Predict the structure.
Amino acid sequence: MFDSRCIRPQCYCEPQMPQVTTTETGVPIQGPSATLIYDDWYPALRTDVLRGGRLATAMLLGIPLVLGRRKDGRVFAMRDSCPHRGIPLSVGWFDGERVTCRYHGWEFEPCSGQCAVIPSLSSHDHLDATKIYATAYPCEERDGHAWVYVPSAGSGRVAEGAIPRAVPELKKFGPRYRTAFLKADLPCNVDHGIIGLMDPAHGPFVHQAWWWRSRASIREKTKKFEPIPEGFRMSAHAPSGNSAPYKLLGVYGQPVETTIDFVLPNRRTEMIRCGEKWFSSLTTVTPVTASTCRIDVVAAWNVFYHVPFVTPVAKFFGAKFVRQDQVTMMQQAEGLKHNPSLMLIDDADKPAKWYFALKQARLEAASRDSQVSEARPGAPRHPMDGPVELHWRS
Ligand code: FES
Ligand SMILES: [Fe+2]
């Protein structure tokens, strides 16, 4: 799919070839699917929907989930499928403590998935209901999201405390801040969602608007990047002076500095600091299925903390911005249906190449680890061997 003809000497990777989902007749039914990264945390849904004993459903990496919140406040995520006959547990009942299946009334403790009651058992039965488990996934609440740890298929129940990866969380730099959240479904696979997210060259074309960019504002950029574990960092720098929101931060009269990280499997964090003032965001592109994904943005800031209407205004412009990406990716999905061959070109696409190389290394390390007895994250090789400067026009 991706033609990675690198003209420069430092070519870091051979990008992974996405596959195509086809019908029996060989006709592509959607854009190509992507290989998925398991054994990590993904945001399933916003937890404000888990009120009053409500069950909610979500799909992560093609796995149907039912989520809820116990009376004690703890959130949970189970596979939305009863282990008895497979009916979705989400059509059953939840009393704040147990999920009851609608078909034969089996009751499950939702955080562990352990069965507590099988109503049909008689005094003649010796079956121990508590030996039966529905599939429950580790689930934690952060920044208003229910984050679910998705283990690789066949790895069995994940013991709490045995998860080697921390639950992702938005960085905040003080106790007083405002927050906003945005999301958009994308009809393309997670790889296209992610390389679209880190693509520096689309800004002047996709995000044309009087308050952001115009095509005429395009100019040469030089940015420094450095390797970080399972990702890369655009080193601290003064943000583009040609973008209106960054200009606004300049009203504080202090130097503005921004740092952008990308870390596997799907996280982009951006921190903008201006003296005591800061803006922080966490953007994730989460595979819903192998060929569709969703972008979620959570942001927190203390800039203009006392100015009224800043949150709705920020949400309005943020939504427009995400919508521009969404519309472009919907148009791209039309093209991808026909499985064209694609290119990753020079420096502007170098972050995309690093992403594919990091992902490939992680998948290879995971497959090595699955062949040794203990499941533990290996130390995947890194495509960068030190800081590097990239140049592009945008
Ligand atoms: S299908 Fe769920 S209890 Fe039988
Ligand atoms: Fe964009």
User: Anything to note?
Assistant: The longest helix spans residues 310-336. The two ends are 25 Å apart (CA to CA).
